[in-house]
User: What shape does this take?
Amino acid sequence: MHHTELEAWKQSIDFVIHIYELTAGFFKNETYGLSSQMQRAAVSIPSNIAEGCARSSYKDTSRFLDIAIGSIAEIETHLIIAQRLKYIQNIENIIQEHNKIKALVLGLRKQVVNSY
Assistant: This one.
């Protein structure tokens, strides 16, 4: 299956857009700090899904999905930090979106691992 057909990839692309919109409201001194970290971690999710799907072995695919899962954990940490710094008020909706993507990517990885 092509990565653009995967629900995990589609929703993680939407998540990237939401993170960019969210970080646009951060202080300008955060341009190369937390907002940049959040943007890079968000972009890493669909990018690693795509790269994993382009690989010819299940082992490689699984490795790139693991990297995407790591980025998912990273962005959760960034969101909590941003909230504690009062850059954002309520992260409940974005965390729900985050958790849905996490479940999709974990399910995809499980499917790949079971294909070995």
Notes: The two ends are 16 Å apart (CA to CA). The CA atoms of residues 70 and 81 lie 17 Å apart. Residues 58-84 form the longest helix (27 residues). The chain has a mean pLDDT of 94.
